Each structure stands twice: as structure tokens, then as C-alpha cells.
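Person: I keep going back and forth on a fold encoding question. Show me how you would write down a chain together with its backbone fold. Please set it down just below, with no commentary around it:
Helper:
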Amino acid sequence: MRFSHTLAASLAVSAVQASPLVKRDGPVTTPKVNDAIILNYALTLEYLERKFYQEALANFTQADFVAAGFEDPFYTNLKEIYFDEQTHVSFISGALSAAGITPTNELEYTFPVTDVMSFVTLSSVLEGVGVSAYLGAAASIMDKDYLTAAGSILTVEARHTSYIRASLGESPFPTPFDTPLDFNEVYSLASAFITGGSSPVKLPFQAFPALALQCTQYYYEADRSSVTFSGAFKAAQKFNVGKDTPIYAVFFSGLQKLPVQVRITAGSSDYKIDRIPAGVAGQVYVVLSKSSTEFNDENIIAGPAILEVYPKGGAPSTPHPKCH
């Protein structure tokens, strides 16, 4: 069973800023963080994951998963993943309270899940984002005990990712390095699922404008496939970007950040690149940047979008089920 995914479309249409997020009205700046902020950031993500699995276990039965091709013990292992996420919530919330810091609370979420397959596909994406979030935050954690705890959670999230990817027929470890994302990049992805609620904790993060990928019947391959970013040029004009302004699609894969200059499609409001760079694989993130060398928050104008990339010549030969 192979089911590649491009989550950008569903992220783009549902990107709603909830109260803990700072709405972007101008250029994004790199947030100043400390361990308390990072722990509440992690707790926010764990709440989201917990709710995601809680809803799935309430809406789908073991028989539903078996009928969709996910044979035993997949359902049992799914319940174990839910237990892990619940334990992470309790642990981080307890650590904050023990330190005299107010923990954030669960918000309201909406997930684009319509059946078992869409749930498992989104599970793979969310677990991958979780790995990238913990990895990207690690360098900013000052307390060694907190860093060790975060590392311990990170490795569990990575095992979740590998298991779900293998269950989908994808490579469980497509690259020798995982991909770190910074705080605003992760919050931009999380904001797509947060639809309401309030929290006593106001985190200093901002969500970039969503970046939508044009659906294609072909699976993405490194060093071969083109990518069209729907409406991206039109949206970029809000940031004083003109038709002669160089903009770069920057692909994050492992420890690589690979820029490719975009072009405006003829008579269109889209940006496009003709070839995904060689060397990227698995769950890949892409942002639009005003710089080809400095990919910081101040230069990013949209994204991240998420796409599954296969090695050149390694993609399924059948049309993509979501875009055929």
C-alpha cells in the first residue's frame, strides 16, 4: 500500500489563527524564547496530537482499519501511540506546574479526516512535524534536564513516524538525517488545525501565510518533478514583491536547505519551479523566501507546505489518487 500525500491544500483552506497565535500583519521576526516558552510550545503540539488520536479512536473501529488494509496489530499500536501522546501531555504539563509556570490548555481543533486512509496519512504528516519541532527547538533549550526529556520524547515521536510511514508503504527512514523546523515554521503548520479556544498563555509565535501546492496526478520525484505554488505570486504582492523580485522555493530535507528560483507562470498568479532539487526525500518542507542564502523568519514570505518526495524513478507508476 503506497499513498503519497500533499497536505498543502487542506492546510491552506483551514489556516485559522487561534488566540495563542500572533496574527501576521507585517514581516515576521524571530521570536525570543526561554525554557518556559519552549515547554508550552511543546505542550501545545502534544495537545493537538492527543486530540487527533482521541478522535480517531472514537470514530473508527478496529474493523474499520482492517477493512482499509491496516491489519492487526495496527489498531493496538495506534492505541499505544495515543497513550504516548497522553503521557507527553501529562509529563510536560506537570513539569511546568512543578516549576511554577502556568501551562497552556487544550484548544479546539478540526482535522481534515474523512476515512481511515485520510487519518493514517495525516498521522504520518503530524508525527513527522512533531519530530521536526522537537529537533528544531533542541538548540534553544537551556536546562539540561529539559533537554534530555525533550530528546526522549523526540525519539518516541520518530518511532511513531517510522511505523506509520511503513504502514503506508513509504520508506520508514527516507533520509539519514531528520529535518529541523523553527518555531514559526511549526506554528504555521499547527495553525491550520486550531479553530478556536483560548489559553492563559500567550506564545510569541507568528504563522506565515499558507502556501498551496497545485494538485497533480503525478507523484513528486527529486531531480525530475515540477511544482506549482497556486496563487503564490498574487499573495506575495502584499509584501511588496513585484514581478521582477527574485523569490526562491527553499526545500528543507534532513539538514539540507536547497533554494530554487521560482518563475511566474504565464498569465497567472502562480509561482512555479521546473525541477525539485536532487537529494531531497521523504516528508519535505518548502517555503518561499526573498533570499537564496538566508532562510530566516524575516525573509520567508509563505509556507511551509509539505510534500512527499520519492527518489528519481522511484515513485509509484499509478496516478495520484487525490488528483486523478
